[in-house]
Design goal:
Length: 295
């Protein structure tokens, strides 16, 4: 009996008004950023710092896996979206590098974690290339879910210190803008339902282990400030009732629907809502837009 759906062709498209344009921001992080910049919480701040360490190399992996299959895309509009995706992820890497340098200057073992992440990604690069693209689609689903949550939930944004909030809101906007690109390339490349769903589970598990380990290493380096109460509260905020991560489980499961497409959930209104607000944070030298063309 055939249980696997034979058709997995998504029908949704990115709304016309959503543009995928790379924009360097030039964020700077200095002594005005408190160590515990998220809800004054040791646990939550180390968790987000750990996620930030994952971005530069992780996003390079996304870009590489999309590049392998970009020639499968023939539609000129979709080709432009791929260029926009590559450029946006490159900019995210640069901005998170700036944040990660700041975290390193606070005494966190960023370089050591980056070396360990490279080992994990080098292993992942041994997978067949389309499976690597399926990993990217899975991780892009996770980032799109978190981006949507951050833009939807004012309580989470307000908990972020004002020196950090613009980076995360800007990243969330752009993750929303390009959330369908890797998925579309995967479909054009002949990717199957079994591949994409298996690798969502696979990449979620790997990300869970790596992010927890990185958070643990950060906390260990800063153990003199450890508090059981803060740890319990932080875990509840993430995984308790209406937690930042637990509330995402239904969206995570949507990916298993045959015919799923990221734009079946049209949240382009969130982009419009935050775009103008975030533009005021572009550093003067980048205000004329990014002139760099990334291929
Ligand atoms: Fe990104
Ligand atoms: Fe992305």
């Amino acid at each position: 009996m055939q249980t696997r759906p034979s058709v997995d062709k998504a029908v949704a498209r990115k709304p016309e008004q959503v543009a995928i344009k790379p924009q360097r921001m030039g964020f700077e992080f200095d002594e005005k950023v408190p160590n515990y910049w998220l809800d004054d919480s040791y646990t939550l701040s180390h968790t987000m710092n750990a996620l930030s360490v994952l971005f530069p190399q992780g996003e390079q992996f996304f870009v590489d896996s999309v590049r392998y299959f970009r020639d499968c895309v023939t539609d000129p509009a979709k080709k432009a979206e791929v260029r926009g995706f590559i450029g946006q992820e490159a900019m995210h890497s640069l901005e998170h590098d700036a944040m990660n340098s700041h975290v390193r200057d606070q005494g966190m073992p960023v370089e050591e974690l980056e070396k360990q992440l490279k080992m994990v990604l080098d292993l992942t690069r041994k997978l067949p290339k389309r499976h690597q693209l399926a990993v990217t689609c899975g991780l892009e689903h996770l980032t799109a879910m978190m981006a949507d949550m951050l833009l939807e939930r004012s309580d989470v944004r307000e908990d972020m210190h004002e020196t950090m909030r613009p980076l995360w809101v800007w990243h969330a906007i752009e993750e929303t803008e390009h959330k369908g690109v890797a998925f579309d390339v995967f479909q054009e490349s002949g990717g199957t339902y079994a591949e994409r769903t298996f690798y969502l589970a696979f990449s979620t598990a790997i990300l869970g282990v790596v992010a927890s380990y990185f958070t643990g290493r950060m906390m260990l380096s800063d153990r003199r400030n450890f508090s059981l109460r803060d740890g319990a509260r932080g875990l509840w905020r993430m995984w308790g009732k209406n937690g930042t991560f637990s509330s995402l489980i239904p969206t995570w499961l949507n990916y298993f629907r045959p015919g799923f497409h990221p734009w079946q959930h049209d949240n382009s209104e969130l982009i419009a809502r935050f775009k103008a607000e975030i533009e005021q944070y572009i550093a003067p030298q980048y205000q004329k837009g990014s002139t760099r063309t990334l291929q």
